[in-house]
Specification:
With about 90 residues, the protein is an alpha+beta fold. The protein has a single domain (about 20-90), classed as Ribosomal Protein L30, Chain: A (2-Layer Sandwich), CATH 3.30.1390. The chain has 4 helices and 3 strands, in the order αβααβαβ. The protein has helices at about 10-20, 35-45, 50-65, 75-85, and strands at about 25-30, 65-70, 90. The relative contact order is 0.23.
């Protein structure tokens, strides 16, 4: 009789983590917000370091958009809402 494959608890946890982090907040460029405002929002809302926030702001400016935060919908939804309330253009994908 063949043995069925065994799945380790670590593997199950890794799959669950990957499924939980399949979404991300995309921040879009606009002609309204200053670099300082975008950086401040990314630091305060998305838990970026100032350098990380500055880099994302430049990517958004020159590329038109940038993924700024990955995670579960439960984590991202209030963060995206807060970014929108600050006047930024963002969505969850």
């Amino acid at each position: 009789m063949e043995k069925s494959p065994q799945i380790s608890p670590e593997s199950i946890e890794q799959v669950a983590t990957l499924e939980a982090e399949e979404h991300q907040i995309i921040l879009f460029n606009d002609e309204v917000n200053t670099f300082d405002h975008v950086i401040e929002c990314l630091v305060n809302i998305c838990d970026h370091t100032p350098l990380q926030a500055e880099q994302c702001a430049y990517i958004v400016h020159f590329s038109g958009k940038c993924g700024v935060k990955s995670g579960s919908l439960e984590d991202l939804t209030p963060r995206c809402t807060a970014l929108l309330e600050e006047g930024l253009s963002a969505e969850i994908q």
